[in-house]
Amino acid sequence: MAGDTIGDFLHPKLTWKFLLRLAAVALTAYLIFGYLLIPCIIHGGSMEPTYASTGFNFCWRGAFFFDKPKIGDVVVVKYEDRVFYLKRVVGMPGDTISFYEGKLYRNGQQVEEPYVKLPSDWNLPPRHVEKGHYYVVGDNRSMDIDIHQFGQVAAKRIIGAPLW
Fold first, then answer.
1. Could you give phi then psi for residue 154, rounded to 5 degrees?
2. pTM: predicted TM-score of the whole model, two decimal places
3. What are the Cα distances from residue 74, in Å, to 26, 82, 134?
4. DSSP the chain
5. CATH fold of 39-162, please?
6. Phi/psi class of residue 148: alpha, beta or left (left: φ > 0; alpha: ψ in -120 to 50)?
7. How far from 31 is each of 38, 60, 83, 107, CA to CA, in Å?
8. Which of 10, 51, 68, 114 is deepest in the core (most CB within 10 A)?
9. Model confidence over 117-155: pLDDT tens digits?
């Protein structure tokens, strides 16, 4: 169009139309990054080698709008106000979870876990997963503190899934 220059692009005229578009973009960004995509910093090595020990990811809160987490899903758990962890769901409400010599048992049956690469040898007596809770642990089972730090979490603390 005639009259369009780089200067017009860099210094737009402050018309009501421009201000409304700017407000719409700002509101959309606020809604997306405030409620649907939450930035997460991954600390520690509890999900190695599935996820790097330190890194950045987004939590997609829409992951469980219409469906509940399933066995094997990697979820984002809200631990404190702005502290989020990635964990894998290994037990559903009503299940009994135990570990013997580092192997996961769900309802008395050993579970094959191809994503667990680092061996462990710790034991955990059977624990019943309460209604409204899930049992979550990291993929790096050699970090035995992980099982004691998490384990059973309330469904309301699972806020989404990692975007990538």
1. -70, 145
2. 0.78
3. 31, 19, 12
4. -TT--HHHHHS----HHHHHHHHHHHHHHHHIIIIIEEEEEE-SSTTTTTS-SSEEEEEEGGGGSSS---TT-EEEEEEETTEEEEEEEEE-TT-EEEEETTEEEETTEE---TT--S-----EEEEEPPTTEEEEE-S-TT-THHHHHSEEEEGGGEEEEE--
5. Umud Fragment, subunit A (2.10.109)
6. alpha
7. 10, 13, 20, 41
8. 51
9. 877 887 889 999 999 999 998 888 776 555 555 789 999
Q: Which residue has tokens 């700017």?
A: 22
Where are the chain's structural domains? Answer: 39-162
How many beta carbons lie within 10 A of that of residue 74, not counting itself? 19
